[in-house]
Amino acid sequence: MATKTEGPDRLPPSAAHPFIYEINTWAWLESISLEEGTPIDLGSVPKRHWDRIAGLGFDWVWLMGVWRRSPAGIAIALANPALRSDFQEALPDWRDEDVVGSPYCVRDYVVDDRLGGPAGLAAAREALAARSVRLILDFVPNHVAPDHPWTTAAPGLFVQGTAADLAAEPASYIEASGRVLANGRDPYFPAWPDVVQLNAFDPALRAAAVETVRSIADQCDGVRCDMAMLVMNDVFARTWGARVGRAPGTEYWPTVTRAVRETHPGFVFLAEAYWDLEWSLMQQGFDYCYDKRLYDRLRGGSADDVRLHLLAGPTYQNALVRFVENHDEPRAATVFVDGRAQAAAVTALTQTGARLIHHGQLSGWKVRLPVFLGRFPTEPVDDQVAAFYRRLLAAVADPTFRDGHWQLCDRAGWPGDASFEHLVAWSWDGDTRWLIVVNLGNAPATGQVKAPWPDLRGHRWRLTDPTRDESFDRSGDDLVDGLFVRLDAWQWHLLRLDPPQASWSSSRRQTSGRFSSHARSG
User: Fold this and answer.
1) How far from each other are the two terminal CA atoms of the chain, in whole angstroms?
2) DSSP character for 475?
3) Torsion of CA 229, 230, 231, 233, to 10 degrees
4) What is the pLDDT of residues 244-254, one digit of tens each?
């Protein structure tokens, strides 16, 4: 039985634009155990580790993969040549015992005993709450492990198969508890061999999902829903067709989110979402959805592609989760190369909405660990990356980035010089004002950026970039009419506007090389 602990009522109000830290729970505890020289679980994590997480400024911690792992899933993984090759690439000295099973092949929604069980999770939640940090856990709506209790106690909750199906498509069906059940899948890729498919159209399954998420909500403050779009009526019908019959008159997610919030007001739902279905999921009850579009455009698009994405309305923007890596994507250090990694991070982590940082990202790790493995490879800390993130997180610790008002800024150029198109600029207004400009191009860019605050006129302002330890004094008229900016490829300005009365008190050095001393007209 889950251990219920006090939750959001004992914490300050949640930030509108939170920072989330994703931790691979099993591998993290293993690394702490090696460091301490004794087994460590969630209930015995030394306080300094929680202090460090809170000290970095995170509002939420996502303990990825706390639920009971599947022995059946482990056996399937160990017999899979492709997975074994992935294990070898990521962890050359891996052993069978390192394969702890996929956290998305859930045997039961009970905290795994090897991670400390329900009592260990309760202690971890208490430690986080004492530091004003909320807790996110996983829910996998589409599938469970083949040895999940439902496969014997409630087999009707699953998409059924036949012996003929199993013979014809052995990679898409599995025998579990004496029945043939479909393997879990999405409509675009082969089935996942280690999980069985739940029938999202079945009213009994939806009722069971409500009770499952309520039990999860007893133990945390929010839930990250894996591949949330797979159980939407149109997607599920497209995936399974006549095998699951006609779609019900109601959607899966409104049924679940409303019922859970009746018993757990304020509980947060976060969706892993793709295929441009984010807005639909927001309408169906999600507080936040992955922003894969921004990630893809930072990775392979142009500055104008990024800017066009940021033109979407504030209701949509405020409910997106921005990131440059997570456990499903390659490490940022291997993707954003040629000097692009820091510019991408500044861009993603200073947007409106939620911001997600993945364990190891702050150290510049390069190995994407398969989720089946419970041990990290030994990787050195990239000191340059670590120093950059220390400065960036210190800057965005300003409450304005959590509860302020975000706005895209206009930028312009001059005849014959189109380099300004590589610039993207936005601002934050709250307890403090910030102006952010990033060159998302491979060459220097020059342009004018207009701050959206007419009341700046008639004063001089100090612009301080804490990520570079630089300050500039500029007139408010220049800021409003169009500040001249020149940035080298993949560089940025993260500028705090200090009020006029404080303009001359800063001890930071003044420089003049990156801005002109006045706005330039066409």
Assistant:
1) 69
2) E
3) 80
4) 999 999 999 99
Distance, CA of 277 to CA of 280 (rounded, Å): 5
Whether residue 420 contacts residue 409, with contact meaning beta carbons closer than 8 Å, is answered with no
pTM above threshold 0.70: yes
Is the dihedral angle over the CA atoms 39, 45, 47, 49 positive or is it negative? positive
Of the candidates 27, 369, 77, 95, the one whose C-alpha atom is nearest the C-alpha of residue 195 is: 77
Structure tokens at 72: 């059946």
Write the single-letter amino acid at 349: L
**Cβ burial 386-409 (10 Å sphere, 16+ → b, else e):** eebbebbbebbebebbbebebbbb
Q: Model confidence over 348-384: pLDDT tens digits?
A: 999 999 999 999 999 999 999 999 999 999 999 999 9
Question: Nearest to residue 60, comparing CAs of 353, 392, 436?
Answer: 353
Instruction: From residue 71, give the alpha-carbon distance in Å to each of 33, 124, 372, 376.
Output: 23, 25, 12, 21
124 CB neighbour count, 10 Å cutoff: 27
Contact 121, 111 (CB under 8 A): yes
Residue 393's identity, in one-letter code, is L
Which one, of 294, 383, 288, 371, lies nearest residue 327 by Cα? 371
